[in-house]
Design a protein that fits this description.
single chain, Sulfite Oxidase, Chain A, domain 2, binds ligand MTE, binds molybdenum atom, transmembrane helix, Oxidoreductase molybdopterin-binding domain-containing protein, membrane, OxRdtase_Mopterin-bd_dom, OxRdtase_Mopterin-bd_sf
């Protein structure tokens, strides 16, 4: 079987003259840097949810020691989550051609016989299964979540989170084994020959450098059609960005909408000025405020973006409303406020409520916004009132707020 060139187990089956240590090494080193950045930005992104704060924010309750690194998410700089998640998603999409080319370059090894020459070899091949399987799993779950909007109801986070740890563990082992060889190959300190070089190469149709330009061009194209989803003025260039569908229209409320009021099942009768009351609860009891009463309180403006886990973000918008810390003061917290639990009018859906940390409630830029860009919030942007907090993931900026509960969670 090993010698029959019609079967993939035979080295002679694989004929592309592009395969060899140089091509694999270049792609491998790009992935070494890129995937490390993806892993770090991904872990940081998860910390931004403040999962230690409350079960409401915790999307992977069984994470155990994998949550060792979690930290209290800061509110400075205000674009922190926007940058982190923008890099995570844009880079992930950009690396797809590199990942595919890298896998293509080593695919003969998948079929190599015998399956294991020694115990070390067997362990190496098992780690490769975790590496390739884990890598494909992370890229596929990531892209599906970005493109199809929660195809894994409630379970994308644990899948992607645990997958990342499995994948990265195998990735570190692989990098330790292979990086020295890849660097030597690129410095041409060693003869360019290994089992990836086809024993009976076909005529080249493209040079190795040409092939690399092709892969790089694919990445560049994906980058250029994705990166625009990180700013209002560039959004039209983001051809590959999801949610091109719900047209936010123009004007002050004309920025990205993910879930409309109709989608969230918000009943207009409930948001009506006569019916809606904000219920604020804290140490000294409960107060109820109509929108008109809220608008009588001292109002402040904050320029803050919305940045979604899916990798899109808006430019800074001008929000205007009541400071969360001022609302805390109404219910007995004169100094710094405690943690805060926010609930919306929405009855179903994982993001209908969120927990905010004391530092987020205390930041003077954190608002219960009534207006955006000089106008009332539109129904789709959370009318009558929405939370907006600097540096936080979009999920924590609850729309259609009904109730704020201050107190240690
Ligand atoms: N009540 C409520 N608030 C919510 C959501 C939601 O589903 N329900 N979605 C959140 C998410 S995931 C994001 S990214 C921001 C912005 O979402 P939008 O584009 O739908 O306005 O609102 C947040 N606020
Ligand atoms: Mo989001």
């Amino acid at each position: 079987m090993r010698d029959d060139p019609r079967l993939p187990m035979s080295p002679r089956f694989w004929r592309s003259p592009l395969r060899g240590p140089w091509f694999t090494s270049v792609l491998g080193l790009v992935l070494l840097v890129g995937i490390t950045v993806l892993f770090v930005t991904g872990l940081v992104s998860y910390a931004a949810y403040n999962p230690d704060l409350s079960p409401v924010n915790d999307k992977t309750p069984d994470k155990g020691i994998l949550g060792f690194y979690l930290f209290a998410w800061p509110t400075h700089p205000h674009w922190l989550y926007r940058l982190d998640q923008g890099v995570h998603v844009t880079l992930g999409i950009t690396l797809i051609p590199v990942l595919l080319a890298k896998l293509w370059s080593v695919v003969p090894r998948l079929f190599a016989l015998p399956p294991a020459r020694s115990l070390t070899h067997a362990l190496e091949r098992i780690s490769l299964l975790l590496l390739v399987g884990g890598g494909l799993f992370e890229f596929v779950t990531g892209v599906l979540n970005v493109q199809l909007d929660y195809v894994f109801p409630g379970s994308f986070y644990p899948l992607h989170f645990y997958g990342a740890w499995v994948f990265f563990a195998a990735f570190v082992a692989h990098a330790l084994l292979k990086t020295p060889m890849a660097l030597r190959t690129l410095r041409r300190l060693r003869e360019e020959k290994n089992d990836l070089v086809p024993p009976r190469p076909a005529e080249p149709t493209v040079s190795r450098r040409g092939a690399l330009w092709f892969v790089g061009g694919g990445s560049l194209l994906l980058f250029l059609t994705t990166v625009g989803q990180n700013a209002d003025s560039l959004r039209r260039t983001a051809l590959l960005a999801p949610h091109g569908g719900a047209d936010p229209g123009s004007g002050p409320n004309g920025f990205q909408i993910n879930k409309t009021a109709a989608y969230a099942g918000i009943d207009e009768a409930e948001t009506d000025a006569d019916a809606w009351r904000l219920v604020v609860t804290g140490r000294t009891g409960t107060v109820r405020l109509s929108r008109a009463q809220l608008a009588e309180l001292p109002l402040y403006s904050s320029a803050l973006p919305i940045a979604c886990v899916e990798g899109w973000s808006t430019s800074d918008q001008w929000w205007r409303g009541v400071r969360l810390r001022d609302l805390a003061a109404l219910v007995g917290y004169d100094g710094d406020p405690p943690d805060l639990f926010v609930e919306s009018l929405q009855r179903h859906g994982a993001f209908r409520r969120a927990a905010l940390r004391a530092n987020q409630a205390a930041d003077p830029r954190s608002l219960l916004a009534l207006y955006v860009n000089g106008e009332d919030l539109s129904p789709d942007h959370g009318y009558p009132a929405r939370v907006i907090v600097p540096a936080a993931p979009g999920v924590l900026n609850t729309k259609w707020v009904a109730r704020l509960t201050f107190g240690d969670l």
